[in-house]
Amino acid sequence: MQLLLLGTAGYFPTETRHTPCLMLPELGTVFDAGTAMFRVRQYLTSPNLDVFLTHVHLDHVVGLSYLFGVLPPGGSRSVRVHGEPAHLAAVREHLFHRTLFPVLPPMEYVPLSGPVGLPRGVTLRYFPLDHPGGTLGYRLDWTGGSFAYVTDTTARTDAAYVDEIRGVELLVHECYFPDGQEEAAALTGHSCLTPVLDVAVKARVGRLILVHINPLADNKRPLDLDYARRIFPATEIGVDGLVVHL
After folding, report:
1. What three-state secondary structure class fits 39?
2. Considering the entire predicted model, what is its pTM?
3. Is a pLDDT exceeding 90 seen at residue 3?
């Protein structure tokens, strides 16, 4: 199974990074619908598309308004958007308010209410994260593998979500700030580098990919990868278009 990192920036897109969107093409499953959502079209082969939202800040949901361009014309694909009830209501009432978007794209809103069974025997679970307005993390487990997605939160080794991601084969975790900007991270609900590395160590994950990168950072060296690998050797900085084999 493959995981595609279609968008790895936070806040706004740049020439090289779009905002959050991850895809498991074999499952027809997408996590977050940032500006990279337009890229889903070239990988969509399943009859259904399931979009799981972490939260509804615009850099994570604006791509839902691209659905008319994502879905092949004349098709009958079903699109289900999963999330917390209040977040889905915000998308429906605000992003798709008739004065902003008068013709609704073809999609169904599905409030999360427990574990979700996905194709190929994959089980999806979710858990709350600390972020202004509330957000969710996701964990997927299947025979022989596991993966967790944690974005828009302030990493701490004593955070409750550490137990939720314990032992996953792959952790994709936000890292908007380098070390030294802890005050800004706490204020905005984002993470600095060392706390993310410490979480990976404590949770005993197999591999760590850093995403939700500050779009104002130096694209060639947005974070100190050499330092990161001294703390947690199996660390990578995610880039748009990265294909991860699970």
Report:
1. helix
2. 0.97
3. yes
Residue 210 to residue 237: CA distance in whole angstroms: 5
CA pair distance 129, 11, nearest whole angstrom? 18
Token pair, residue 53, equals 């939202």
Question: Distance (Å, rounded) from C-alpha 3 to C-alpha 212?
Answer: 16
Q: Where do the domains of the chain lie, and which CATH numbers do they carry? A: 2-245 (3.60.15.10)
Cα distances (angstroms) measured from residue 208 to each of 78, 86, 114, 202: 32, 30, 26, 12
How far is residue 80's CA from residue 48's CA, in Å, rounded to a whole number? 8
Q: What pLDDT digit, counting tens, does each position of 217-234 carry?
A: 998 899 999 999 999 999
Structure tokens at 65: 């308004």
Give 210-226 as a DSSP string.
EESB-TTS-TT-SS-HH
Write down the residue that tokens 């979710």 correspond to. 126
The DSSP line for 45-109 is: -SSEEEEE-S---HHHHGGGGGHHHHSPTT---EEEEEE-HHHHHHIIIIIT-TTT-SS--S-EE
| Residue among 8, 60, 57 at smallest CA distance from 239 | 8
**Biggest CA pair distance of the chain:** 52
DSSP state of 233: S
Cα–Cα distance list, 116 to 157, 163, 234 (Å): 27, 19, 29
